[in-house]
């Protein structure tokens, strides 16, 4: 049995360790450079690896190939593997058969990290022996190799779901769907939607699908396609016999003839989108039979997620907010929607085919000035140049924050919510968010 791992990042190295432990002959190949810390792990475990190349002779003789989520299907080596009928799967698909743990899989265009962290917080606070993996922290495969959890909360991207054949979560969540990563889906929105719904394709009548019943892409798919899972909807506008909703500032979650209620103002997270994340995570807690008092307490003390509407500092009565994780228009829509003060908005980066029109009414209502932070800001300037009074460009975070400060007065807010990827000026969204926080602290 020969396991070839393409990509030596967190998921790749974790898979290599698990594969070796389960008796596979393992080979790791990365077309780029491998981080020193990962090289050390591979070497310490006597796992053969290569970087900056793919040696076909060592790859095309695989029994199974685990492809890291960042590698597109259209890469030459992947096409050759598929043509030869060698299964190319994701880390989740590879690792799942090696654990008896219950898995809770969470996907969506936005909100999945917050929902994942909150669900994990709810289960962990109740004393469950629970792991956290997927797109977050230590890889699922690595934890299956080294830890012994009874359940896992997994944040799953569409790329991870593309590589599943038999995997099914016992509880699946789709937080929402909006156009994102379309460059990986032949620019067809329906392909991306289908990819998200792979999370439920192997589920049975014993399993659950929790979903946003206000989301047109989700509800249309469910009207036209079948899943065997038991459906648990959540909504800000509708009410259900079975499901979660908000009415008169009370969040109600009704599952298995048992109702849980909490006043929305006692929930630590703020904003309409976060009420949805709270309903989804609370539905998980109810299905996992967590006590109501524990759920209430956990919802009121949850700290939120770094780089997602994170309050950094208040300086001269101006609140600085880091929402660097907003890498698409839909995420920025939620951020602007939750702003209650006149806002100086820092926006820009690598555009993934954004349509800024859907932000227009919010920008008119909430934004007093825009600071463009990117190498190419033309599209943003064309979209909002006539809508806001002040629009300026910056090409370092330091400058962007200083310019934003000059444009504020008491009671305003400065919001970094880029609506774009970060790769033009930063390593990733975390680097962008950390530079923002540093720049704010230096004011």
From TrEMBL:
Domain Mur ligase C-terminal: from-to ranges: 307-420
EC number of this enzyme: 6.3.2.9
Domain of life: Bacteria
Keyword rRNA-binding attached: no
Cellular component terms (Gene Ontology): cytoplasm
Domain Mur ligase central per the UniProt entry, residue ranges: 106-284
Family annotation (InterPro entries): Mur-like_cat_sf (IPR036565), Mur_ligase_C (IPR004101), Mur_ligase_C_dom_sf (IPR036615), Mur_ligase_cen (IPR013221), MurD (IPR005762)
Name of the protein in its database record: UDP-N-acetylmuramoylalanine--D-glutamate ligase
Lineage per the UniProt record: Bacteria, Pseudomonadati, Bacteroidota, Flavobacteriia, Flavobacteriales
